[in-house]
Amino acid sequence: MASLLILGGGTAGTMAANLLRKHLPSEWTITVVDRDDDHHYQPGYLFVPFWMKPSRVSRNRWAQLSGGIEHIQAAVSRVVPDERRVNLADGRSLDYDWLIIASGSVPRHDLIPGLSDGPLWGTKIHDFYTLDGARRLAEALPDFEEGKILVHLAELPIKCPVAPLEFAFLLEDHFRKRGNRHKVDITYVTPLDGAFTKPVSAKAFGDLLEDRSIRLAADFTVSHVDNDTSRLVSYDGRELPFDLLVTIPPHTGAQFITDSGLGNDMGFVPVDKLTLRAKADDRIFVLGDASDIPTSKAGSVAHFATELFVDNFLAAIKGEPLPNEFDGHANCFLESGRGQALLLDFNYDTEPLPGEFPAPVVGPMKLLKRTRLNHLGKLAFEQIYWHMLLPGKRLPVPLKMSMAGKRQPDTAQKEK
Questions:
Q1: Which superkingdom heads the taxonomic lineage of this protein's source (predicted)?
Q2: Which region, left, alpha or beta, applies to residue 167 given φ > 0 means left and ψ of -120 to 50 means alpha?
Q3: Is there a shared CATH topology between the 3-50+58-107+252-318 domain and the 109-251 domain?
Q4: Per the confidence metrics, is the pTM higher than 0.70?
């Protein structure tokens, strides 16, 4: 009998367990370890401050696993690859033949001095990257009538890197609907030199910020938060006053990865970006946000990579060459307010481009263009997530990025 141990019961860990249960012989044991029993639909955090009920975001973690999969509720203390063993925080240890690390990434408010350790935390300073944070922000927004709001991205990588922009656009729409937009000054603060990481999308989102009268404070590398003066301070000495600061802090990998000596300086596990196999040990694969692959830490990446990983895992346990290569494919909706959204589709080598998705000409989704259909697609994904993606049902979208329907920047520019 062989054993597969999966550390983390989030999107990637749950998908991997459910998909592999369909393919591995019954004598294989599959065990998922996680420290709690709440599975969160994390894209829902964005909507909680505005309209989504918090109870809609969370479901029982273990109920998402198929039959024939064991689970253990415990925190992980350390991985010991040489002994193929995982130590748990409660003193137990688990042996494995193969290990999948799918422990995600962790928002670290403690890495910015003055952010969560001062008197403004929870009053003037909020976040929406945890369910508790989103819930507290939902309670604070109705009382905000006028003043300066900073929507702040501390650094990359973070989960869902488009979410800070989405929040800024939804915030602007929120005050527009309330009729006091003219009393609220919104600034999007980023360490990047533009609104986003790549030229085409950076221009598109920068134009949209300008269209919505949202200021852009670029190249802002935060040093600390001054709680006495309610100011966000950068390393180059700039100071931005705020009446409300909504921040997305730096992210790291899980602590047990660092404690096990498996992580880089941010606690993410170095892997072969094509196969997701850990560079430190051939018996370990890393799925979802826990790895150091150079693409978006997004649910779509976990989805595409995990489906391609299954064939690789089945080959690996037979000692055969791995048949699939992951290209870094990411596919993200970006809410722009006014009941519209944009769609981004990209990979390791190709930046988000305009065009149609998934089929050329007919779409029906539009890339890098605000449409009602994109917005409805984002809302519909909640049900797709629970009922199709987590159980391991195949979705009608390509696992690898296709150039079909996309237009290169020169072509797109000529059409303007």
A1: Bacteria
A2: alpha
A3: yes
A4: yes
